[in-house]
Design brief:
binds 5-thio-alpha-D-glucopyranose, globular, eight-stranded parallel sheet, 15 helices, binds manganese (II) ion, 2 domains
């Protein structure tokens, strides 16, 4: 076995909609056949993934009867068991049907909101039946092109009502399920409400059951907004709210590219893996490493599996590089040189004595201003680790 072969401990997952993406775009038809979910499960097992995630309609076609649904789910469960894959996350398609053109939970028409809520109840039941413990909410259509259509506060209130309703449903059913909210600034709507992970983190504090709800940051979505993905993820970790993560790659200023993990901005990818693997502080984040990405439109199914292997291989390579970087004596030395424990006790937990002690401190600000911090050297060492020029 190669050291870069994925193992279950890596917690690598893909969505049915990712490796099953047929390559349709706004300007062109599908370039790949639509695969059967059971075949995607077999393919994912072959490349070494641990789990598969899904929308309700990735598995059960929209409008299927109860008996059709049950037959599909039975066959899918058999495939999961046969290939040893789990379903850690599930979600609802609240964006494809034309009824959702004005939003789902935030649409002006209460009949649309009722349909969205009912569809999500069924999709939650499906996810739980398949073993999911995380339920994602990506409000792709929860936005607008013209703010003349509603007060944005009304949209927030409706979205809150829906989440509160669904949290109570989960509690009443006794499900072990947490919600993860996924932000995106735009596309397919002109503006999507709650545009970033930061917006979501605050919104969660306004819910009836904030303890059940966290975030699902996506590389592409934060990058589209021009933001630092690592900072968003770090804030979610700090709040104890990183319930899921969507890994892919993206260039700033483009449409949502959902590229193979690590194929753009290797620095952000490296720093993301460093954070998740905890190579700096020794604390590994234990959630799924979910790749919400798809193969280039140039690919046939062989290329799709190359894409999937590539996501996992790059993640593992970056994890190795991150471990080597944080173990590098020169890195440790450079980091140690910028910090000390001197009077750090004065900097937290206010008291009148500490205020007096702070005022009495002798601080040579000119010397501080003149001192070089060595971050150029540090960053170059990081680049050399990423390029494999250091650290074995
Ligand atoms: C859709 C979107 C993704 C979301 C998925 C979950 S669906 O592919 O582009 O970012 O994570 O609904
Ligand atoms: Mn996503
Ligand atoms: Mn995306």
């Amino acid at each position: 076995m190669d050291r870069l072969d994925p193992t279950p401990d890596d917690r690598f997952t893909f969505g049915l909609w990712t490796v099953g993406n047929p390559g349709r775009d706004p300007f062109g038809e599908a370039v790949r056949p639509v695969s059967r979910p059971v075949d995607l499960v077999a393919g994912l097992a072959r490349v070494g993934a641990w789990g598969v995630n899904l929308h309700d309609n990735d598995l059960v076609p929209f409008g299927a009867s109860a008996s059709e649904r049950d037959a599909i789910v039975r066959e899918f469960k058999q495939a999961l068991a046969e290939h040893g894959l789990v379903v850690p996350m599930a979600t609802t398609n609240l964006f494809s049907h034309p009824a959702f053109k004005d939003g789902a939970f935030t649409a002006n028409d209460p009949a649309v909101r009722a349909f969205a809520l009912r569809k999500t109840l069924d999709a939650i039941d499906l996810g739980v039946e398949l073993g999911a413990s995380t339920y994602v909410f990506w409000g792709g259509r929860e936005g607008c092109e013209t703010d003349a259509c509603r007060d944005p506060r009304e949209a927030l209130a409706r979205f809150r009502d829906a989440l509160d309703f669904l949290c109570d449903y989960v509690r009443e059913q006794g499900y072990e399920l947490r919600f993860a909210l996924e932000a995106k600034p735009n596309e397919p709507r002109g503006d999507i409400y709650l545009a970033t992970t930061g917006h979501m983190l605050h919104f969660i504090t306004t819910l009836a059951h904030p303890e059940m709800v966290g975030v699902n940051p996506e590389v592409a979505h934060e990058t589209m907004a021009g933001l630092s993905f690592v900072h968003g993820v770090a804030q979610a970790l700090d709040a104890g709210k990183l319930f899921h993560i969507d890994l892919n790659a993206q260039r700033i200023g483009r449409y949502d590219q959902d590229l193979r993990f690590g194929s753009e901005d290797l620095r952000q990818a490296f720093l993301t893996v460093r954070l998740l693997e905890g190579t700096l502080d020794g604390q590994r984040w234990e959630g799924s490493r979910h790749f919400d990405a798809h193969a280039y439109r140039s690919e046939d199914m062989n290329g799709v599996w190359d894409f999937a292997r590539g996501c996992m291989r790059t993640y593992k390579l970056l994890a190795e590089r991150a471990r080597a970087f944080d173990a590098d004596p020169e890195v440790r030395e450079l980091l140690a040189a910028t910090r000390s424990d001197a009077h750090t006790d004065l900097l937290r937990e206010h008291s009148a004595e500490k205020v007096a002690a702070l005022r009495a401190l002798t601080i040579d600000v000119d010397a501080l201003g003149a001192q070089g911090l060595g971050y150029e050297r540090l960053d170059q060492i990081m680049v050399e680790h990423i390029l494999g020029a250091r650290g074995g």
